[in-house]
Amino acid sequence: MTCPHHDTSNASASPSATENIVREEKAQLDFSQDMSYGDYLQLDSILEAQKPLSPAHDEMLFIVQHQTSELWMKLMLHELTAAVGNVAADELPSAFKKLARVSKIMEQLVHAWDVLATMTPPEYSAIRPYLSNSSGFQSFQYRCIEFSLGNKNAAMLKPHAHNPARLGMVQAAYEAPSLYDEALRLLARRGIAVPASHTERDWTQAYQAKEAVEQAWLEVYRNPEKYWDLYQLGEELTDLEDAFRLWRFRHVTTVERVIGFKRGTGGTGGVSYLRKMLDVVLFPEIWTLRTQL
Ligand code: HEM
Ligand SMILES: N[C@@H](CC(=O)c1ccccc1NC=O)C(=O)O
Questions:
Q1: For ligand 1, atom 21: residue with the closest CA
Q2: Domain 55-260+267-292: top CATH class
């Protein structure tokens, strides 16, 4: 296939304005010996990876939407893991930079639903039988993000049991302290009373909200000048959970408009399951403290 911008069959005609600009700018045009854009970005691998299974036109949208989401999730995990390390090492300015980026990525994924929502129920019905039992429920990067944000649940490890390398990755996130666990440990290091049950615990257990932890955050929020960076951390956690809630909401709404109340290919009730996930609260005391202020 000839790209119209690289069609040189017309070379004898007088050069266009853009051709003149490219020549005058001395842009490099020969990449036979040098690394090019596509080489650096491994575009051959990435752009080879869209393999529709159905004859449906819209399957390309479905694949690209999920692949781009997984790429953004890859970056989120990269940032989130480093941010948790920064909080653990008392490097708050570095953590803030990364957490702000994670929230912006999440916001971007919220807007990405607009593209997928252009797919109608009949369009998706043409693809769905080809998906078999695969489902976003089995996204290992998504599960690592949930675990890093503290939504721990051993059952979510099972879909990865057949792949030891992947299981290892998800298990590491499952066993590690979450972003919120590290935030509470930091409050304790700053001399704010946090119960030992929340600074040393079995990190694989689901987080339990506690009145004393709300009191710890209230100490920060009632004295922002004294604890400016912890106050900023609290607000960055709020931004992140806010964006995550929007993502979950757009997911369930998009699913309802596309498959209604059908069961999910992953085996759950579908919309009923996703609605239950809307009730998950990642950083509970960060929200409840607001009633006391
Ligand atoms: C037409 C589009 C979509 C439909 C109909 C759909 C449907 C569903 C359903 C029914 C579930 C529940 C699990 C199951 O039983 O299958 C689910 C879970 C999930 N989906 Fe989607 N989904 C869509 C698009 C997406 C996109 C674009 C992503 C982004 C990567 C995504 C990521 C996930 C994740 C991560 C879960 C697990 C959620 C959790 O466990 O809390 N889905 N989806
Ligand atoms: N759970 C979806 C299927 C689905 O959405 C899906 C299937 C394969 C790869 C990604 C998917 N997206 C999110 O769940 C359904 O029940 O139609």
A1: 136
A2: mainly alpha
